[in-house]
Structures are given as C-alpha cells and as structure tokens.
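ERR on first pass: missing label on line 2. Operator R.T. fixed the label and resubmitted. Corrected input:
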Amino acid sequence: MIIANNVTKQFGKLKALDNVCTTCNKGECIALIGPNGSGKTTLIKSILGMVVPDSGLITFNNNNILHSWKYREDIGYMPQTGRYPDNMTIGQVLDMMKDIRNKQNNLDDDLIKSFSLQSIFNKRIRTLSGGTRQKVSASLAFLFDPPVLILDEPTAGLDPLASELLKDKIVAEKEKGKLVLITSHILSDLDELVTRVIYMQDGKLIFHKSIEALRRDTGEYKLSKAISRVMQN
Amino acid sequence: MKKIIKHVVTDILRNRIVLIYTLFLLVTSFSIFSLEDNNSKGLLSLLNIILIVVPLVCIIFSTIYMYNSAEFIELLVSQPLKRKSIWLSLFGGLAISLSIAFLIGAGIPVVLYQPNAIGFTMIATGILLSLIFVAIAIFATVYTRDKAKGIGAAIMLWLYFSLLFDGLVLFLLFQFADYPMEKTMIALSALNPIDLSRILILLQLDVSAMMGYTGAVFKDFFGTPAGITFSSLILILWIVLPVWFSARKFNSKDL
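pass 2 clean. output:
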C-alpha cells in the first residue's frame, strides 16, 4: 500500500531521513522503533505529505503522493501532540473535521463512546489536559474508518484504562485488515499489537522484519528485550 | 474551500479584536464627520486616519492570527485538502472578515455623509488596502517560522510603507531637485500602495489644486481613466503577487 523509495530529507545539517526504502502492506501492524531523533516522525510526516522529502519517492496505492492530497482520505493520523485551535470546543473540532472530510454517516465513534467524550463536548481545547487531547486525537484518527492508520506515540500520556481501550481498538481494526503504523517508546504496549518491526537509527532504516524473525534472530521473546539486544550491537 | 473559509471567518469573528476595530472605525468616522462643518474636509481627515490605521491593524492582526493558527494549519494539512486551497482559504477568511469590518466601520459613515464618487473611491481603496496588507502579512509569515521575527517583520513593513518610504522619496526629490522628476514620481508611487491610495483620493478632492506642478502632472496622469485603471491594476497586483508567492512557498513547506 505504502512504498517508500530512497527517501532523503535534510534539516540544515541534520539528515533526518537517509535513503529510506520500505514497503507496508495491508493487514500489517507495523511498529516504527528507534531512539529519539532517529527520523520516525519525519518518515510519518513524509508519508502524510506534511514534510516534503528532498529526494526519493513515496507511493500510496501505486500513486505518487507528491503534491497530491486525495489519498489522505484513506489515512487516519494521530499526531504525537494533538494541537487544535485553542478556542474551539471538542464538539466543534469533531464537527469541523466531519465537515472538511465531507462525511456525516458511517462514522466510527467507538472511541468517542468508550472515552466518554460526549460528556465534555462543550469544553474548550485550551482547558484540556494532555491526556484528554490524546483521546481527542485518537478518536479523530479512527472516526472516518480509514483503511490506513498512522499513530504517533498513541499511548503516551494516556491513563492505563484509556490506553487499554485504545489498544483493543487497534487490534480490532488490524483484524479488519487495515494497515496500522505505530511509533512508540513503550515497547511493552506493542507486544500484543505488532506483526512487523521497522528499526531506525540516525535517519537510516536499519531493518524491517516480521516480529517472529526478530524473535528468532535475537532469541528474546519480549519486544523490549529484543530491541535492547539490537541497540547494544 | 468554502468550508475552510467559513471556519476561519467564524474563528475570527469569535475573536473580539475585529469587533473592537470595527467599533473604533465607526466612532472615529462619525466623530470626524460631526466635528467638521464641511463634509469634504471631514473626508480628508478621515483619509489620513484610515491610511494609518487600516494597514496597521490588517498587517498586525493577520500576522498574529496566522501564527496562532499554526496548529489549525497543521491539522488541515494532514487532511485530504489541497495545500493551495488551505492557503487561499486562510487569506480569504482574513480578507473577508477585515473587509467587512472596514465596510461597517468606515463604509456606513462615509455613505451617510458623502454619498458621492469620492466617498465610494475611498471605500474601495480602503478595502483594497485591507486586502493588500493581509496579503503582505501572510507573505511575511510563510517565510519566517519564528513568531517574534515574523511580527517584527510585519511592523517593519508597515513602518516602511507608511513612514520610511515617504522619507526616501523626499530625499530623492531633494537630491534630484534640478531634474524633472514628475514622471519618475508617478513610477515611484506605484511602489507603495498607501501612497497610491492617497494620490487616488486626493486628486478627486479640491485640495489637489494646492499641490503645485507635480500635482498638475499627477492630475494629468491619475485623473484620466487610463491612470485610474493603471493604479487600480497596480493595487490589485499588490494583492495577487504576495498571495501567489506565499502560496507557492507554502506548497512545499515542512510542517
């Protein structure tokens, strides 16, 4: 579904992405793992077209995404820090997104219900805590039932209950055959979710393999152990 | 695109600054017209205030608004929307709300006290000036990521157009006093939308008779239909160019 070919992006002297090549297919749940500043978010933003790569090619369903926009209808994106217009209420933000996406029916409001956001619909974004903002972001990403979900640190800042609810939702969507891309530093969260792992360092893609292969290669069952083994080498 | 404009306009109208701006214009216009016994003199005083206040409010408000909506823009860019239409809608939203504010604040008093060609020219140039300075503001914000720098640049631009430029022109005039400068002056005035608007309106008032030989040359040029078309075109160019360049820059900007 998503193919990246020799994607390179430089911010000043820093090479945020260095010749990244990868392929992501339907029905996979891919974990993007790497130290801070390894280019995970830049890769995600390049896929979304928020960052324009210096060179290289990204295709979505075999169409080049450069300067195209229609393909984003198929992506639900949950940013690392959800930032919304300060003086809008949660309800207004949701309504605005529905209006912009031009979709009023067939909405997936499971997360809105399970986070019980309805009760705080008229709270202004300015007054929300970080965790509640994350809940709004997560609800928005899933709301339009898109075939691709891109989640940047989805569980950071969520309370244990909300985090479990979100993970259940991710599993349910994966079962439906959607492509899910997750970055996270909380590797224990990823154990039950992911089928494949992409490991990045200093803007380079070090490896992209299935979780079974990773377990076999490192001899560790738990993802956190396996990754720390990789990082030491 | 209409939808984004709608959201931008409602967001701006929720902000009280535009309301205060409208009220300020309304109060000054009415008080000036009721202080002066001669409406034409009143229009002249109002012109001077409008030429200072409208560019200032438009450029500063638009710059701050653009920086404050950085999150909103980021959110929109991750949605299935064309970048160009996001940018044009932001410009459109700002332009519409500030023009409406001007129309209510200055348009109503002018129509009440001076319902003639001069009055309508003034309303038209006021709206054009609003659009021009919104355009310059969004041009400044797309090139500077830092908020403080961007707002500083906006203030400098305003200062340049309303004060420094006149100083420079005056300096040139004195330096080249021995040469015929009238034609050059016409060309120079095209470089500053505020000056161009001032000339356009002044030439329709009686005071233009007091501007001497340069005034006569100006009247010869700007008084003709060709001159009016030329200056309107220049003013429109002042809107189109900044918007076009900033939209092009925004199209490949990293967020």
